[in-house]
Amino acid sequence: MGKPEATSMKYELVSPENFTDAHRSFIDTFRRSIDVLSSQIDVIAGAKDIHSRHLIATDAYARLVGLAKGADVTGRLDCEMPCEGTARFADCHIREDRELLSHRDADSTKSILKVYEYSDGLKALVFDKFVMKHDASHSILGIIYQAHEVDVSHLFALLPNYALEFGSGSLEKAHLDEIIGRANLTEYEYEVGFLIAMNWSVGQISRFMNRYRPTANPRVADTIYKCKDRICEKLGIDDCRVPVLREKLLQFGIHRKMPRSFFHRILGSRQL
């Protein structure tokens, strides 16, 4: 279930009704592999078509969404799952899938932290998604997903007010070249912008960054204000007051795309 091998060619999206015999054989082979995997270990994994309808799922995924067996998931959209958390955010899942597929790049991937009320309680799961490619026909048949649980307390330890501000939902890992409002922020600017969107004060941000991103000269409130002004300049915002910038950043959805370093920390990495 690893990342697909690199390829530079753009692949074509193919709907199930247009599957060839070769496509169907490929799906059947993948389904048998998933069935064997599901019978031996408790792994959350599966695949969807390009319209986000489930093609295959393990029994562990089925139980997560309130069903008994992986076969019960086949043919369903997320909005049709018994699990209230999955059904509630179905539109969000479709948007994530479409963003991944829109590049028609067989190497595209996404990592998303989902904090939902699943069928067996509140959980934090990291879903890794990548395209399901059929190399022989240069086709993309859908999306393969796999997931693992992380301690939800790691999120709340890093961002204690996240649930209060935004509730449950999905947090995607931002790319290094993430574009916010047509502006390519540096990694540091993105981190500061994200924390502004979290409704942190400049004092809180400077203390946090000094702890996790120490520099020779410790940051003070003025350091963060200068960074805030650079972000405003890149975004073309004339009114650089923090509340104005925060509102703009929320409009761009930065609160749903977590900086990579923060994401790794929640997963237990020492990178931050």
UniProtKB/TrEMBL annotation:
Highest taxon, organism lineage: Bacteria
Protein name: Uncharacterized protein
Organism field: Trinickia fusca
